[in-house]
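Appendix B. Chain record.
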Amino acid sequence: MPEPFIWVQLAFVPVLIAVNAFFVAAEYAVVTIRSTRLEELKQEGVAAARVLARLKDDMSGSLATIQVCITATNLLLGAVAEPAMTELIAWLLSPLGVVLPSSVARPLSLAVGLMIVTLFTVVLSELLPKALTLQYTERVAVWVARPVALFRVLCNPLVRLMNWMGNRVTHALGLGKVEIEEQVHSEEELEMLVDRADDAGEFHEEHGDLLRRAFDFADLIVRHVMIPIRKVGFLDSNITVAEAVRRLSDWPYTRWPLIDPKSGRVNGIVNIKLVLHALALGADDVAILHDLAVAPMFVDPDMPLVDALTEMRRTRRHMAVVREGDGPDLGIITLEDILQAIVGKIPSEERAPHFVKP
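Structure tokens predicted for this chain:
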């Protein structure tokens, strides 16, 4: 019959396995929960979210604390379980009449006991908490936050010493100071996440298309979305206001490029509201259109579309002329053309298919 103390030791084995499982779950929870989700939880008033945010901000210290606790628990588990299991197995073999020399019995009992303890440890304190944490990351993270923060304070001197020693080793190896930071997804990874979320039905198909166009937007240049000059509806700079109004009645766009018939170049952008106002005042001089026009904004056809959008917003322009250096005008581009590259086709009340000649 094993000594009573052996049963006390065996009773501690499941407790230590549970403690180890807790810290394994805590490690996966701190690493896998997203900082963006923590911000949402903080806005929802979840107090543990603030604790988790502090743990993630000091990821190196948090993981070092958890590793210290896991290592200490495993060492304690081995120290408690090994002699108890050895004694228990020897006691179980005795009724079978199996008598082995001590030189064989002890190593055999030790090996069998180690296998049993390892099996339970791997399954119950490694695989199970890992699976549960990956399945219920948010719940587990909120549950472990405060205990881990407490151990972080208690183990702080030891953790600081370990981090200092670790940094000395990495410096000696030429690796510099190693910092553990939350992984940031690349654009390609984000696109894959959008595809997976779309396939899983996480959001409407149109939302997925919008996100994909937003990713593609960074690769677009002005040339990709501009309206070629041959398709542009324009006003001659030498016509009267009345003639301009008659032309505008066919295609009631708000802004029109004003083209010099001699050079064939755009020399201004005129707003139909100003033209109608001039007509109402009785102005019908040939030079009026030129006076009403504003100097055009020019963009290079190979300018990134995001830069063109930024510049048009900065200068408060809705239309720009596409011109390469001192060459001829290649076309025009509007804010609406740029926005359609992101959100798709925008129906308009004021025009037919596009700003083009019929």
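Further analysis of this model is presented in Appendix C.
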